[in-house]
Amino acid sequence: MSTPTLFISYSWSSPQHEQWVVELATALRESGIDVILDKWDLKEGHDAFAFMERMVSDPAVEKVAIISDQVYSERADGRSGGVGTETQIISKEVYENQQQDKFVLVVSEKDEDGKAYLPTYYKSRIYIDLSEPDSYAENFDKLLRWVFNKPLYVKPEIGSAPAFLTDPNSISLGTTSSFKRAIAAIKDNKEHSSGALDEYFEKFLSNLERFRIEKNEEEHDDLIVKNIESFLPYRDEAVQIFIALARYAPTEEKIVKLHRFLEGLVPYMSRPPEVTHYTDWDFDNFKFIVHELFLYSFSVLVRYERFEQADYLLRNQYYVPGNGDYGNDVMVDFLVFRQYMPSLEGRNKRLELRRLSLRADMLEQRSKSFGLDFRHLMQGDFILFMRAEIDDESGYYGWWPETLLYLFRFHSAFEVFSRSVSEEYFEKMKCLLNIDNKEELVELLLSYRGGNRRLPRWEGSSINPQVLMGFDRIATKP
Question: Across the strands, what pairs with 477?
Answer without folding.
Answer: 422
